[in-house]
Amino acid sequence: MSADPRATGEMPFLAHLDELRKVLMRSIIAMLVGAVAGWWLAPRVLEDVVQRTVKQVIVLSPLEAFNERFKLAMIIGLLIALPIVLWQIWSFVVPGLFRRERRMILPMVAASMVLFALGAWAAYGYVVPMVIQVLSGFMTPSMRAEIRIGALLGFVYNMALACGVVFQLPLVTMTLTALGLVTPGFLLRQWRFAIVVTFFVTAIITPGDVVTAQLIMGVPMAGLYFLSVGLSWLVARRRREAAAAAAEEGDRG
Question: Once rounded to an integer, what is the mean pLDDT over residues 192-212?
Fold first, then answer.
């Protein structure tokens, strides 16, 4: 059985370009199919977002409802097609990787996707409704909320992105621990500094000047840091056990 020319470096440059073109075409087709499904799902998601948060929104132009549905359909389509797109990219990249790199990269990408999805879902189901409910408490009886659908969806998108990024923290700490760059003891000793950085980061990634959103995100993010310390300890213990087993094998040899 002949070796894959992409793995041996024998594939010509034009053949690489042809492979890349095929990957891009398959990815674009997957995203277009996903966008069609997203166009069908978008009204249901829009209605669910509105009912979870402000109960009623306004549109200020004839095209606004169409534009927001189109943007949401594209986002949903990308999410639906993302596994296929990532698989296409992986199939293009993997022949040029060493076996160890393949074993490391694929689980990390999968874990990152799962954590990002959990963070985005937390924003959708918990953070955004709670922030909007808290902020509505600052209104006086003479105030009437008239929130544009575009502004509401923009807030949801930003919060989902922010929470998705924040949820990468356990993966980052576990990776750094596995590489030997940090230790659980070091992470635990830096908890005060981590709390300050946590609220500083949430102040940057939360949309606008919303102190309430920063507090609501900052407290769970601090808890996520201590969870990351615990996971780092598990990785460090496994790393020590592997090193001890390797040393024992070396002594026997």
Answer: 66
Q: What is the C-alpha separation between 153 and 37, in angstroms, rounded?
A: 19
Q: Record the pTM.
A: 0.74
50: its two tokens: 């509105």
Contact by Cβ (8 Å): 229, 188 = yes
Tokens describing residue 158: 């930003």
The 10 Å Cβ neighbour count of residue 151 is 12
Domain boundaries, the chain: 1-96, 99-247
pLDDT higher at 95 or 187: 187
- For residue 125, the 8-state DSSP code is I
List the structure tokens of 201.
């980061």
Distance set, CA 189 to CA 8, 194, 226, 229 (Å): 47, 9, 11, 10
Q: Helices (DSSP H) in the chain: which residue ranges?
A: 5-8, 13-52, 64-93, 99-122, 128-136, 149-166, 169-178, 184-189, 191-205, 211-252
Q: Which residues neighbour 124 within 8 Å (Cβ) at sequence distance 6 or greater?
A: 49, 52, 156, 160
Task: Measure the CA–CA gap between 135 and 155, rounded to whole angstroms.
Answer: 13
Q: What is the spatial distance between Cα 102 and Cα 26, in angstroms, rounded to a whole number?
A: 22
**Are the beta carbons of 217 and 166 closer than 8 angstroms?**
yes
Looking at every residue in the chain, the average pLDDT score rounds to 79
- Which amino acid is it at 227? L
